Amino acid sequence: MEDVVIAGAGPNGLMLACELALAGVRPLVLERLPEPTTENRANGLVGQVVRLLDRRGLHDRLAGPIAPPAPAFVFGALRLDLTLAERNPLHILGVPQRRVAAMLEDRATELGVEIHRGHELTGLTQDAGSVTLDVTGPGGPYRLAARYLVGADGGRSVTRKLAGIAFPGVTDDRTLSHTANATVPAELTDPDSGGLHVPGHGVIPPFFHYRTETGLFVHAPFPAGPLISTMEWADAPESADEPPMTLDDMRASVRRVLGFDLPLGEPEGDGPHLLRRLRGRNTRLAARFREGRVLLVGDAAHVHSAVGGPGLNLGLQDAAGLGWKLAATVRGWAPAGLLDTYESERRPVAERVVMHTQAQSALLAPGRDVTALRDLFGELLRLPSAVQHVADLMSGADVRYEPGTDHPLDGRWAPDLVLADGTRLAELTTTARPLLLDFTGSLGDELRGWTDRVDLVSGHAAADATALLIRPDGYVAWATSSAAPDDTERKALHAALERWFGRPLDA
Ligand SMILES: Cc1cc2nc3c(=O)[nH]c(=O)nc-3n(C[C@H](O)[C@H](O)[C@H](O)COP(=O)(O)OP(=O)(O)OC[C@H]3O[C@@H](n4cnc5c(N)ncnc54)[C@H](O)[C@@H]3O)c2cc1C
């Protein structure tokens, strides 16, 4: 019997596979596509997920060392001047999803994970001890038993449906989006900003979501080739016999949004070149993230508008949240209820993403009342505290899991510490082992009984804490600021160790 089967080798399934393998459980990944998809969705990663990749040594593989947070971003097509924020948390990594998935597949394979391509999950039943899967592979149908199944099979998740988990939410048919790789004439490009001179609109900055009364326009001059994107408000439901999108469709959509014939040329280079038409959008959250031995991660658990690019920030952190807890459960040291904290922690985060993507969609809508709301929102976004709030929301830096103590870092994402010898916390977390960072030099003995599961790091660092217990997913499980932690604090440390990492070996 397999310990864990993951259905779906998209980015979130692959990330989960890496996290499980790091925690000592090698899952089997089933992917219905025979080859990696050439479809590109995400153009980049936004928020804490960039720091998560750094903490696994994966940022380096995609783009070298992590860059400082972005100086500006967009919220509901309004400029977010992040220089106003006291603590700017918004990291951005402009790497296409295809490359993220390819890198994760390489990493999973390195860690010994088997990925069976061309194998589609088609049925499942479960009892108290196992899940039985029906799979159709290149050699025909077969059966497979596993202790756990994780559905990472996207928004239309077969796993979710087979497990009988409802997917309530809304489908909004009013939007029509076009995206294409296309060139724009050099004389329309502003040499200083890279923006576009568009008669009647001035210079539209690059990567900016520009709203008009009829829709939204984005010009993204990526190094691999510029991307033009529009979103319109159109009551035009999808029709099965609609011809494939052409560059002329893109031109016509830009004309409707900007009231100007932007002379878009054929894309340069070998491609593949994107021509994508999407109608409507779904906002849905699975009724449960777990049904017995079946769990959901990523788009299988939640779908929402892609505005602001929050999808992989949510999904890859779901995977990091679930990986170590599921591995602990399989390996037998999980404290009671640990696996259920996956949902109790991640559902509220998904709900916040649903909230802010819907709020942004509302700010993009046509109409004078929306324009007035945008004017007001724009004024608010000149207040540093409002910028901080929105930046924390979009990045996920405001996430706080249920703390065990009242230390301000407890339950929060561990800060980017640098030890006195120059070692970054991110270098200590590539193995995804729980860590006790002890800058007091007095806590080593407290780990007795947990040294098989938790590593001790001694040293010094300028930090808001003198010791921190850090979970594999990067969140703080306990912290103190005392130079010499007293008995009460030591008891709280023990409680945190038991709460997250189970009983001590000698107990
Ligand atoms: C147009 C667009 C733009 C986006 N832009 C961004 C962005 O800029 N930033 C961002 O963070 N996010 C963005 N997103 C969201 C992001 O693409 C998704 O959140 C992400 O793809 C979810 O990954 P996943 O692994 O959960 O699911 P998927 O990527 O959908 O992968 C699911 C995998 O499961 C496989 N599968 C399905 N059914 C089965 C089965 N029965 N058996 C076996 N395998 C199966 C599929 O073939 C697929 O490989 C965008 C989405 C869209 C649509």
Write structural notes for this entry.
- Helix 1 packs parallel to helix 4 (97-110).
- A hairpin with a 3-residue loop joins strand 12 and strand 13 (202-204).
- The radius of gyration is 24 Å and the shape is globular.
- With 507 residues, it is an alpha+beta fold.
- It folds into 3 domains: 2-70 and 95-167 and 286-364, 3-Layer(bba) Sandwich (FAD/NAD(P)-binding domain), CATH 3.50.50.60; 170-282, 2-Layer Sandwich (Alpha-Beta Plaits); 425-501, Glutaredoxin (3-Layer(aba) Sandwich).
- The strands form 6 sheets. Strands 1, 2, 7, 8, 9, 10, 18 and 19 form an 8-stranded mixed beta sheet that branches. The protein has a 6-stranded antiparallel beta sheet with strand order 14-15-16-11-17-20, with helices on both faces. Strands 22-21-23-24 form a 4-stranded mixed beta sheet, covered by helices on one side.
- It is built from 12 helices and 24 strands.
- Residues 7-13, 30-33, 37, 41-45, 97, 120-121, 152-154, 158, 298-299, 306, 309, 311-313, 315 line the site of flavin-adenine dinucleotide (FAD).
